[in-house]
Amino acid sequence: MSSWEPKSLDEFNRSVVECDKCPRLVRYRALVAERKPPRFKEWDYWSRPLPGFGDPLARILILGLAPAAHGGNRTGRMFTGDSSGEFLFGSLFRCGLSNKPTSERPGDGLLVTGVYITAALRCVPPKNLPTRDELDNCFVHLNTEFRLLPNIRVIVALGAIAYDAARRLVDAPRSKFAHGALVDAGGLKILASYHPSRRNTQTGLLTSDMIDQVFEKAKQIAGLSN
Q1: Edge-to-edge strand order for the sheet containing 182-185?
Q2: Mind listing the pLDDT tens digit for each residue in 19-60?
Q3: 110 within domain boundaries
Q4: Is residue 4 part of a domain?
Q5: In the beta sheet, which residues pair with residue 36?
Q6: What is the CATH number of the domain that holds 212?
Q7: Torsion sign over Cα 93, 76, 79, 173
Q8: Rg of the chain's alpha carbons, rounded to an integer?
Q9: Pure H helices in 148-191
């Protein structure tokens, strides 16, 4: 790992945006921006590594897989501009963790309270399938980011890849991913949820009630419940 240590989240995020460690991902994120669908033809795609965002005093860390090709890779904000984000932010709003149920783009007035949102991978991978080397490269970013969020009490891991990254982050014991699984890692807990992908939500594998229950549980663990 690099010996350089950023002094703030802002400094860290500026460094993440400049990352070019993974040639396959650099090529692919640019290709996606070049081949934008007609509905987004007027957009100037972000097409760079995506920083996390949220409350710097957060007690809940939401950890996803990666930016969506025409979501975060387009808008420049995690879980923004795609169906996964609509499902996620709808839940955060219902659970009192955001001031609005939608996330459209940076500068849209969205505020989240008590949560910070990030991902195991900062660039969109082909077919949503990162390689082990790519995940290892990005884990350095995740580990640094985590150290800059000193109040985290629970990590909500969205999907199996995020769950594995969370366990590695806090050196938690090996365990199988399952929706609702709770792992105790010496005072900090990992809470697993199915990823709010269209495939999971449209098939009913993940419902609004299910993800709301996850965030209400996370609030309870983090001491944010009323």
Answers
A1: 53-54, 115-119, 60-64, 154-158, 188-193, 182-185
A2: 999 999 999 999 999 999 999 999 999 999 999 999 999 999
A3: yes
A4: no
A5: none
A6: 3.40.470.10
A7: negative
A8: 16
A9: 160-170
CB 51, CB 13: distance < 8 Å: yes
Taking the model in full, what pTM does it have?
0.96
Parallel/antiparallel/unpaired status of strands 182-185 and 188-193: antiparallel
Q: What is the identity of the amino acid at 60? A: I
Query: Distance (Å, rounded) from C-alpha 138 to C-alpha 16?
Result: 9
pLDDT at 1: 42
Report the share of the chain in percent with pLDDT over 70.
Answer: 98
Buried b / exposed e over 99-137, threshold 16 CB at 10 Å, is eeeebbeeeeebebebbbbbbbbbbbbeeeebeeebbeb
Q: How far is CA 104 from CA 10, 15, 161, in A?
A: 21, 24, 25
Question: 36 lies in a domain?
Answer: yes
Q: How buried is residue 78: exposed, middle or buried, by Cβ count under 10 Å (0-12/13-18/19+)?
A: buried
